[in-house]
Please model this.
Amino acid sequence: MSQWSQVQQLEIKFLEQVDQFYDDNFPMEIRHLLAQWIESQDWEAASNNEAMATILLQNLLIQVDEQLDRVSQEKNLLLIHNLKRIRKLLQGKYQGNPMHIAVIISNCLREERRILAAASMPVQGPLEKSLQNSVVSERQRNVEHKVSAIKNSAQMTDQDVKYLEDLQEEFDFRYKTIQSLEQSDKNSALIKQEMLALQAMLNTLDYKRKEVLSKIGRVIHEIDMLMSNMLTEELLDWKRRQQIACIGGPLHGGLDQLQNCFTLLAESLFQVRRQLEKLDELLTRLTYDGDPIPVQRPQLLEKVNFLLYNLFRNSFVVERQPCMPTHPQRPMVLKTLIQFTVKLRLLIKLPELNYQIRVKATIDNNRRFVLCGTHVKAMNMDESANGSLSVEFRHLQPKEMKSSAGSKGNEGPHMVTEELHSISFETQVCLYGLTINLETSSLPVVMISNVSQLPNAWASIIWYNLSTNDPQNLSFFNNPPAATLSQLLEVLSWQFSSYVGRGLNSEQLNMLAEKLMGQQVSYNDYQLSWAKFCKEHLPGKSFTFWVWLEAILDLIKKHILPLWIDGYVMGFVSKEKERILLKDKTPGTFLLRFSESNLGGITFTWVDQLENGDVTFHSVEPYNKGRLSALPFADILRDYKVIMADNVPENPLKYLYPDIPKDKAFGKHYSCQPNEVSKPSDGGGKGYVPSVFIPVSKILNDSTDPHSPSDLLPMSPSVYAVLREHLSPTVIETAVRCKFLHS
Model:
């Protein structure tokens, strides 16, 4: 079943979440019509590869054209209209930046997988629940409402200033007219009456000046309160959501809404600034005793400039955290001399700033690393599909200085991957007489010199972003805090949903909790230490919990991904639990689980019944990536054979737990049909007998019988038939015997 088909079967509350991230950037109509094609493309790789993204965009447009041809034949006028509009939109929006649509589609697919994983959970995880707090949503709406009200107030004050200017011009004209009269004329009753009218007009001017200053003061106060409270909280919430998204959590949206708020506030402040400049101009033309402008204007202008400085400083954000294109799902882990990308945005989108702001990237000042590549670029509105004022660095690479590289041999592997660094960015904005220096930094990154360090480095990134919302605590691992086990398990499920397409259910998470904390733990409020997660070896093992889990992720990604996505790999189940599950099942029922003693291993256990009616269980030696590289796991399950005594080899695997016929579960994943016994003349031009690998095991009833180190035997059916004709069963058993667990 395709991922989109699974999405369509979700409950309405989950479908509403899906609806939120499909818009004109990537219309849901295209997702629906091209579901299988979209899911078969590698959008993650294309999001960091411009040539690949260009090809995928071209192919996407071709797919849309094919759908247009189909619906044209069906004369579906509405769909024809929508597809034409969508095609024009996609081509116009992404032709100049094809990687952007790759990022969008990759994020949408990832978010679908996360929602599917969440739907399989009995309750929503604590982290995700906190991110979807209804109070937060209400605050977002309040911020947008208040920003709109402030903008309207500033525009209304513009009209008041214009009225004040017109009134002063009239006063100025009438006053100068009287001043131009002869002295004898000024004593007339008519002129005296005019002087009284001018005094009344001056009183009105004074009142209007005070009124305008009061309104300007209220607008400034409202902006100050909004920035100090709700807008600051909104920005901090967005940064926290970004942290969580970086470690596999829900996609963080809302940056466009924040940009709209920041931009409207900046426009309002500049509008107020112009109003104060206009009052200064009016002041130079007319002043009087008790004039409020000279007293209040300097203070108001100082406050406006202060708010503009703060608004600009907060608006300079890292939109996409540093990430190597080779490892798009492991952001903030950077390898020396390997390029990484990072994207920044100024949330104040003003046309006057396009190509006027040059951003410089540097690394923290410990002199251990330097940045090579293009580290100064101008922000512009042309590279982003949504027209935001942004800059993306695509060719930066960290280089370790020779003086520190020489001492690297004295550092342990954990010390390397627990050392945090920061990529810093600085620029200067010069606008309307203001000069504002801006600085921001990435979330802490971990530098590695060898890809073998990546798993532990990624563990550091997970632990940091799970445990703190401090964006710059580079000494975090000097004394890393414990994490709530319930939150950690939620993040571990995200690793599976984001990396291999299917999260973990409650039973699987319970097994991980038991492995971390022992049997029958209540993990809702249990605190787990960093050492227990990533540094201390599991009991009786030579590896840590995280290394064991990372090896399983790698195994799934490279060798059993379709089986995992279909939900046919139970995976995380203990030996004791598997026997409880299988003991009452039909003989030949089996399940798939990950090895607890071998890194990156998967095994299967089936239930059998002895002649006396007793139940017995058999677990095959785990298959690792070396064996699975030679033979697909689905084919192993199809072709697996067991030899008992003098019996003909047979496949004991009949039903996948609980009762799914094996071929129904795995049939679509078989690479080919098993070869029939062939004559030498059927083997092709050179006359060879075709051969296939067949996994064969020998169940040993005699405990003194030696065990072979392997459970895989490359043997074709035709060769086996010939051996049976010419060799005794004892000789064959010696040749094919493999290590096998019998209980």
